[in-house]
Design brief:
- With 113 residues, the protein is an all-alpha fold.
- The protein has five helices and no strands.
- 3% of the residues are buried.
Length: 113
């Protein structure tokens, strides 16, 4: 199957299955959890979330989105037959939709923030 793949697709596949890439994504997940905790703490104190935290969170979302796009490009339909692939896709999609809603909503929606 891989023998018929383009060089770019092979490179994308090799990247996302590599140990350094997966370790980097694991670190990113932990950092993202820390930002979520900080956002919840600021919201609980009824204090505005610092813009740098929002920017960092959006940057992490962009990295997750890029990861999913690369995996879909590399693995095509097989990506969606993998439970973790579907979970990643769903989580990134939900996060992206909520981020867009929050960005477009002039009034603070505490339940979404």
């Amino acid at each position: 199957d891989r023998a018929q793949w383009s060089k770019v697709r092979l490179a994308a596949s090799d990247l996302v299955i590599s140990t350094p890439f997966n370790l980097s994504m694991s670190v990113l997940i932990v950092v993202n959890m820390l930002f979520v905790i900080m956002e919840v703490d600021y919201s609980a104190k009824d204090v505005d979330i610092p813009k740098w935290i929002t920017a960092a969170s959006l940057s992490i979302l962009a990295a997750y989105l890029l990861e999913v796009c690369i995996k879909i490009f590399a693995f095509r339909r097989r990506f969606f037959s993998d439970t973790f692939g579907v979970l990643d896709f769903g989580a990134v999609t939900v996060d992206l939709v909520f981020s867009i809603i929050i960005a477009l909503t002039p009034v603070s929606l505490g339940i979404l923030a």
